[in-house]
TrEMBL record:
One BP annotation, GO: phospholipid biosynthetic process
Protein name: YegS/Rv2252/BmrU family lipid kinase
Species this chain originates from: Halorussus limi
Ranges for domain DAGKc: 28-155
Source domain of life: Archaea
Entry annotated with the keyword Kinase: yes
Key words of the record: ATP-binding, Kinase, Nucleotide-binding, Transferase
Length: 337
């Protein structure tokens, strides 16, 4: 508790003076509702609106000032005893705050709220949360479901790397694809925008020699070969048609492996959509409770976890079934198929 009071009082959280002063003056628990706000997500025009609605709903607002800070604030909020911690931002901010809750080992103690103020807001969309005002209605009255949380651990001996994703993980993302994905395309296609850009910019030497091992409900499955990307969905799947929301209460990851094909086949967005069809020979789809992705070359590969990138050589992913309580919108479907 001292930590978050220190953060609030010490001015390390930007313009949180009003709530911070009041809470510190109280000398008590800094509110049982804390909202971590990314003021620059999306087009950055949501700050005052979110603050007003959050204030009405009784939240203490903490603003992130830099990348990564929302992880720390999520952890501090949970350690301070908050029982409702919300993230206002895009998928990246939601991911950061959830990582903070994980670091505090607080998934069983905290309800997590999502206020979509990012560019793609893919995770919020998959939970039926349609906008900022709607998010506050959902926080007040939405049905509270327990959602799977996916983790990825590095397979190195020292096991230093550990990641978390709520929505999706993409393996094989080049730095250029990640940097050159336009906000317009992200807005239109969500995470698929990275895939489209990735496939458009893929070059001969970008092929990924991969070995994939998947623990599927019926059997172990293995795949090896040259891939362009591996898409792993927790709340998101990558279908040819129909809903892109996955069942995110089943303890399973939706895995799509896109094999390398001649680049000319991958240039059109329509072709990318076709790629996800079941009939194509270039795509493998499996559902897995655990997935190991092993890169069979010397340099590491770019992975995007809910849009935040990091490099690894080998990762084992799994889901914690129904590990985090989140209020969801009316259109959320626990079993979208
Ligand atoms: N004050 C800040 N200044 C600069 N960057 C920040 C700040 N606070 C957070 N960030 C970073 O902003 C990045 C983008 O945030 P986020 O992913 O939430 O929004 P987005 O990219 O607009 O939306 P989406 O991921 O849904 O498309 C994250 O990496 C986050 O760490």
């Amino acid at each position: 508790m001292a930590d978050i009071r220190g953060a609030l009082a010490g001015g390390s959280v930007g313009e949180n003076a009003v709530s911070g002063d009041r809470l510190v003056a109280d000398g008590g628990v800094p509110g049982d509702r804390i909202l971590v706000l990314n003021p620059v997500s999306g087009n950055g025009d949501h700050r005052e609106r979110v603050r007003t609605l959050a204030d009405r709903a009784g939240f203490t607002v903490i603003e992130s000032r830099a990348s990564g800070e929302a992880v720390e604030f999520g952890r501090l909020a949970a350690e301070a005893g908050a029982d409702l911690v919300a993230a206002a931002g895009g998928d990246g901010t939601v991911n950061e705050v959830a990582r903070g809750l994980a670091a505090a080992d607080a998934f069983d103690a905290v309800t997590f709220g999502v206020v979509p103020t990012g560019t793609g807001n893919n995770f919020a969309g998959n939970l039926g949360i349609e906008g900022v005002e709607h998010a506050f209605e959902v926080l007040a009255n939405g049905e509270r479901r327990r959602i799977d949380v996916a983790t990825a651990e590095e397979d190195a001996a020292d096991r230093e790397g550990s990641e978390l994703f709520l929505n999706s993980c993409i393996a094989g993302l080049t730095a250029e694809a990640s940097a050159s994905t336009s906000p317009e395309l992200k807005d239109r296609l969500g995470m698929l925008a990275y895939v489209v850009t990735g496939l458009r910019t893929v070059r001969e030497f970008d092929a990924l020699p991969l070995a994939v091992e998947a623990a599927c409900p019926d059997a172990e499955r293995t795949w090896s070969g040259e891939a362009v990307m591996v898409l792993v969905g927790n709340a998101r799947r990558f279908p040819a048609e129909g809903r892109s929301q996955a069942n995110c209460e089943d303890g399973l990851l939706e895995v799509t492996i896109i094999e390398r094909t001649p680049p000319s086949n991958l240039l059109q967005e329509a072709a990318v959509h076709r790629l996800f069809g079941d009939e194509t020979e270039h795509v493998t789809n499996v559902r897995a409770s655990e997935l190991r992705v092993d890169v069979r070359r010397d340099e590491p590969v770019g992975f995007s976890f809910d849009g935040e990138t990091a490099e690894y050589e080998a990762l084992t992913m799994e889901t914690g079934e129904r590990s985090l309580e989140i209020p969801v919108g009316e259109s959320y479907d626990p079993d979208p198929e």
